[in-house]
């Protein structure tokens, strides 16, 4: 980090009245840097976590967070990271369970801070307590809990917060758009393709669901889960073939085209049973 230098302060007469600035070459300490971030962002500019309306979707909208000065940990953390990088300060997002944190590094020393609670510093005891509150009393800190987040990881975590709130509110169209936008960030994320296929299926957009699930299968490394989704793909293909053969028949609720068939003919049953949104969850 660059040291401070004297800057001349010219008065109305043009004479040089240099400000008494510290011109030593000493680097700031980790505590000084962490305190500076806290002072400028949390105290002077008032950026804090919104504990009263935590689930408000505005807390995950970066533009509204900047305007309201309230937000979720990951949204606030993005502001800290951007400001710190502009000042040459090394700050890394940490993918801590249930609560996004930041790690400040100065001259080989590190300190964890919480952007949601005014950039307070967290030591091992506080981190252990935070972990147990999210993962259970038996959870213990491991190196995995200090895993840094890439810029893409951070953006996807913010998008995921928006998606989760949309799903809780029953806004499937919004949740679908969020996943579509997330795939613009990371088009190789197999879990996002799975979620998109499930959302399309819930919206009765079978063609799109089929395409999304096919993209998932191309990327899925788990043979068991890949086989389950391949079965869903075959069902969707059969359904679409039947619909194409009988385009003039509609569901009673005005949905997609359905074939007219006798009681003795076999056809896949069309249901609205939800396909799990997350690959690692069973229903």
Furnish the topology, listing elements before pairings.
Layout: H1 30-44, E1 48-49, H2 62-68, E2 70-71, H3 73-86, E3 90-94, E4 101-106, E5 109-114, E6 120-122, H4 124-135, H5 151-168, H6 172-185, H7 190-202, H8 206-219, H9 223-245
Parallel strand pairs: 1-2
Antiparallel strand pairs: 3-4, 4-5, 5-6
Helix pairs in contact: 5-6, 6-7, 7-8, 8-9
Provide structural commentary.
- This protein has two domains: 117 residues, no CATH class; 95 residues, Tetratricopeptide repeat domain (Serine Threonine Protein Phosphatase 5, Tetratricopeptide repeat), CATH 1.25.40.10.
- The strands form two sheets. The protein has a four-stranded antiparallel sheet. It has a two-stranded parallel sheet with strand order 1-2.
- It is α+β, with helices and mostly antiparallel strands and 283 residues long.
- Helix 6 packs antiparallel against helix 7 and helix 7 runs antiparallel to helix 8.
- A hairpin with a 5-residue loop joins strand 5 and strand 6.
- 46% of the residues lie in helices and 8% in strands.
Mean pLDDT: 83
Outline the biggest β-sheet: 4 strands, antiparallel
Count of helices?
Answer: 9
Q: What portion of residues belong to β-strands? A: 5-15%
What is the β-strand count? 6
The spatial strand order of the largest sheet comes to: 3-4-5-6
* Principal-axis shape: elongated
For the record, the count of structural domains works out to 2
Rounded to the nearest angstrom, the radius of gyration is 26 Å
The helix-and-strand class reads alpha+beta
Helix content, binned percent: 40-55%
The succession of helices and strands, N to C, reads HEHEHEEEEHHHHHH
Low-confidence stretches: 1-23, 250-283
N-C termini distance: 52 Å
């Amino acid at each position: 980090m660059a040291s401070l230098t004297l800057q001349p302060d010219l008065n109305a007469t043009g004479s040089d009245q240099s400000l008494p600035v510290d011109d030593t070459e000493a680097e700031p300490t980790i505590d000084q840097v962490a305190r500076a971030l806290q002072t400028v962002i949390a105290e002077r500019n008032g950026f804090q976590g919104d504990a009263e309306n935590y689930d408000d979707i505005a807390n995950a909208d970066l533009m509204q967070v900047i305007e309201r000065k309230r937000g979720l940990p990951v949204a606030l953390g993005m502001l800290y990271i951007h400001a710190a990088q502009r000042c040459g300060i090394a700050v890394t997002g940490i993918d801590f369970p249930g609560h996004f944190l930041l790690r400040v590094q100065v001259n080989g020393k590190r300190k964890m801070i919480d952007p949601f609670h005014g950039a307070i510093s967290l030591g091992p005891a506080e981190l252990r307590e935070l972990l147990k509150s999210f993962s259970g009393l038996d959870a213990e800190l491991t190196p995995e809990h200090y895993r840094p987040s890439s810029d893409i990881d951070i953006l996807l975590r913010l998008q995921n917060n928006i998606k989760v709130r949309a799903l809780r509110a029953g806004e499937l169209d919004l949740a679908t758009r969020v996943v579509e936008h997330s795939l613009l960030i990371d088009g190789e994320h197999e879990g996002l393709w799975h979620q998109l296929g499930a959302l399309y299926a819930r919206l009765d957009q079978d063609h799109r669901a089929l395409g999304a699930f096919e993209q998932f299968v191309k990327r899925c490394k788990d043979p068991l889960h890949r086989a389950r989704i391949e079965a869903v793909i075959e069902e969707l293909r059969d359904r679409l073939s039947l619909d194409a053969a009988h385009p003039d028949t509609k569901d009673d609720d005005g949905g997609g085209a359905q074939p007219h068939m006798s009681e003795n003919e076999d056809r896949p049953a069309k249901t609205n049973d939800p396909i799990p949104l997350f690959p690692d969850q069973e229903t």
